[in-house]
Amino acid sequence: MSDSLPADESALIARVQAPAGEGRAILDAATREHIAHAPDQSVADLDDAIARAKAAQPGWDALGHERRSDLLLRAADAIDANAETLARLLSREQGKPLNGPNARFELGGCSAWLRAAATTPLEPQVVVDDGEAYAELHYRAIGVVGAIGPWNWPLMISIWQIGPALRMGNTVVVKPSEYTPLSVLALLAVMNEVLPADVLIGVSGGREVGARLASHPDIGKIMFTGSTATGRKIIESSAGNLARLTLELGGNDAGIVLPGADASAIAPDLFWGAFINTGQTCAALKRLYVHESVYEEVVAALAEVAERMPMGVGLSEENVLGPLQNPQQFDIVHRLVEDAKAHGGRIVTGGSPATELGELFYPVTLVADVADGMAVVDEEQFGPVLPIVKYSDVEEAIASANGLEVGLGASVWGDRDEARKVAARIQSGTVWINSHGGIDPRIPFGGVKGSGYGLEFGVEGLKAVAVPQVING
Ligand code: TXE
What we know:
Elements: H1 7-16, E1 24-27, E2 34-38, H2 43-62, H3 64-81, H4 83-94, H5 103-119, E3 125-129, E4 134-141, E5 144-148, H6 154-167, E6 171-175, H7 181-191, E7 200-202, H8 207-215, E8 221-225, H9 228-241, E9 244-248, E10 253-257, H10 263-275, E11 285-291, H11 295-306, H12 327-342, E12 346-349, E13 365-370, H13 375-378, E14 385-391, H14 394-401, E15 406-407, E16 409-413, H15 416-423, E17 430-433, E18 448-449, E19 452-453, H16 458-463, E20 466-472
Parallel strand pairs: 5-6, 5-8, 6-7, 8-9, 10-11, 10-16, 11-14, 13-14, 16-17
Antiparallel strand pairs: 1-2, 3-4, 4-20, 9-19, 12-13, 15-18
The structure holds ligand TXE.
């Protein structure tokens, strides 16, 4: 571990790293310097964690909503008190800059979503009361919930999984991504300063640990965010243990810019819709369909925004874009851009690795004159690349938006009434009008088609980590 780190960051890492001589090396995504060794726990460690979480669950449930909410609010305060330390560790491990909609923003989201989970009311619903019949619908704890997370927004997505599950009286076992375990374990350590023992346990291990968590007989629910391929395996596992599932499997979100849209007015929001977290975001804008009447204006306005956004090492305060998190993702981005070039795509900006910044940096890349069927359009880039497709009839753009087997988010840009008509015809869990990707703890969020199923956030998100029970009579 580097001696030059602030003392609070060194102390936090020391609490979560592997014992000396053990574990897996975790590198700074931007500088590729060694941060620390993360614990590499086994399936036996996971089994032990689930047994402890199962034993702790009845006591946690028995505390009741008010007391649990109070403890979760205190956990949110603890996150706020450690936010800068956690943001720095997140920035180094994940690569995202401190500033822009990145590491500090992610920590702010963690405490905001945890507070929302703690305070959203969920009252029993009287479903029939007609003088003859009387029935109420309640929501009870499931038991032990497994939370399996990705590496792109590792802290915020963990909180989305953990907060509602704890609020509803479940205990939680968290399996962080093997790419970003340290910051998740650090977040749990901070929360566990105020939570009772064994209510929230992290197990840092490889894919086999995730697979065991999904298939374990004592797991009642899996909250998963990751790839469609892994989501399918988790669905197969659930045939064995009948675990309930919430699956957020990413997407390939389309945006449609209608005729008459004001290119320079929408360009900044289009940019951040696509390039938030350097494009490594599940509901980022990943293919943009622009009407021919405004096509060149939109391409030029987006390039103009892109060229003034600083990219570099996340701890430098001026940067708002960072590296790809891992070499695999870098290779995907590089391959897709090369393929686009080979098939006649016009590189408007970017287009080759930013090796001067470091091994995993790829510049913001806008690719014009591309079409459906090209890999850069049809495949999720999950990085700083946006293909821009020209259309002449809005029916074509709607067909293109719906043409892939995914449906997490989408957006329509232009006159609001026209945009709402188009939105109603798009197959995705959310359609934003004149923005893309904004989320709110009160508003349900989830996908359709290959993007998974189940809702997170708000009252629907609480119901999703509970079992319904009817009291009849
Ligand atoms: O995801 P995985 P990875 C996409 C993105 C990326 C690709 C692969 O395109 O290139 O997915 O990323 C655990 N049972 N997204 O490799 O493999 C694993 O250990 C249970 C989109 O990170 O799905 C990790 O903790 N769990 C996505 C988690 O699943 C298993 C965000 C995710 O790993 C398991 C991230 C199994 N059989 C990547 N195998 C989004 N929704 O936005 C692995 N895991």
